[in-house]
Amino acid sequence: MTTRYHKTWRIRAFSLVELMIVVALLGILAAMVLPEFRNSTTEAKEAAAKNNLHILRAAINLYASQNNGIAPGYPIGNPDLTPIPASFKMQMIKYLSALPENPLNDKRTIRMIANSDDFPLEPTGEYGWVYQPQTSTIRIDSPGTDKTGTRYYDY
């Protein structure tokens, strides 16, 4: 004769109310922390934009000082010709491995301003950078302001 033993297993689990409380607490914590991450991300992009702009300005000045004061961007280095982005990129290869990205809009393109044209008063956000070889002026093509109220375009 065999005897069978029957064990009862009790499964321990969280109740629905306990799970809802945990989810609510996680949501509250996330709501408190996410704005800090967003601010840090924005500040990092602003710092990178300033740094990239500084690098571009230094490279433009170095190019001009080594090329009889003629800024990069003019085809065959002739300031009487209309500046074009391809000439700028080709002339800057010696100074920059690549055109830096504008971290505020993730673009590496450059808008060239001809000698006879006025520098735009406002950014469009369509390009990474706005540059006029005649004045050696380069700016970030991003609308908006930083936390101090300074326009990105005015960096």
Compile the SSE list and pairings:
Elements lengths: L15 H51 L18 H8 L17 E3 L16 E4 L4 E4 L15
Parallel strand pairs: 1-2
Antiparallel strand pairs: 2-3
Give a concise summary.
The protein is mainly α.
How would you sum up the major sheet?
A: 3 strands, mixed
Strands in their spatial order, largest beta sheet: 1-2-3
Number of helices: 2
What are the segments in which pLDDT stays under 50 over at least 5 consecutive residues? none
Strand content: 5-15%
Report on the architecture of this protein.
The chain has 155 residues and is mainly α. It has one domain (45-154). It contains 2 helices and 3 strands, in the order ααβββ. A 3-stranded mixed beta sheet has the order 1-2-3, with helices on one face. β2 (129-132) and β3 form a beta hairpin. The mean pLDDT is 90.
Main attributes?
3-stranded mixed sheet, 155 residues, elongated, mainly alpha, 2 helices
